[in-house]
Specification:
Keywords: Signal. It is a single chain. The chain has helices spanning about 5-15, 40-45, 50-55, 60-75, 85-105, 105-120, 125-130, 130-135, 140-160, 165-175, 180-190. It is mostly helical and about 210 residues long. Helix 9 runs antiparallel to helix 10 (about 165-175). About 30% of the residues are buried.
């Protein structure tokens, strides 16, 4: 294990990528269909189940909704643009998001949103986030196997298979690849399972 949990948390907070997050309109709640797909943590705060888990105050909820609308609209205005100016503006949006978490949430809430963020994305985070792979000390062979599993799950999603089925199979494949020590580290990163209020009862399974 090359990094401690605190270092990993800091790395994840610095890579929230709201500017590149293709999602819903800034005034809508994050839909269930995005479960298993990396999403900017700020957008998770649009969901009532996440708000409840974090025990957000009414003021925090209102502030989150305003920030989501403002930053999403800024990010949406940069869609399709390239060049140094566009890159700089995207980074500025992500920095605004990070600053929002630093100033609006307590330390406990910041730690928890990182856990919820990882739970939301699920096993694909082991492939998409270098900080997670490094914390788990994944081998090149493990990463290759996991990437193939993630690619296959993405293919199944595009064919319209139910999210719970796809994510459940990916979770099983991931656990089969990890060592016992790595499983414990991954479980520690995820924390207590969040109780997501999904549309379909069978989709309420946690990863």
């Amino acid at each position: 294990m090359r990094q401690g949990m605190t270092a990993v948390a800091s790395a994840l907070l610095l890579s929230m990528a709201l500017a590149n997050s293709p999602c819903c309109a800034g005034t809508e709640a994050l839909p269930d269909s995005r479960l298993g797909i990396r999403t900017a943590p700020l957008l998770l705060l649009s969901r009532r189940d996440v708000q409840a888990d974090l025990q957000l105050s009414r003021t925090q909820v209102d502030d989150a909704e305003a920030a989501i609308s403002e930053l999403y609209n800024k990010a949406n205005g940069l869609r399709g643009l390239n060049g140094e100016k566009a890159i700089a503006e995207r980074r500025a949006i992500d920095e605004q998001q990070r600053q929002w978490f630093e100033t609006r949430l307590s330390e406990t809430q910041r730690k928890r949103i990182i856990q919820i963020d990882l739970q939301w994305e699920g096993p694909s985070a082991l492939v998409s986030r270098p900080a997670v792979a490094e914390f788990l000390d994944l081998t090149p062979e493990q990463l290759t196997t996991l990437k193939k599993a993630v690619d296959e799950s993405n293919r199944r999603r595009t064919k319209g298979e139910r999210t719970s089925s796809v994510e459940g199979e990916l979770a099983r494949q991931t656990l089969a690849v990890l060592s016992e020590a790595q499983k414990l580290r991954w479980k520690a990163m995820l924390g207590q399972p969040v109780q997501l209020q999904l549309t379909h009862a069978e989709d309420k399974k946690t990863k």
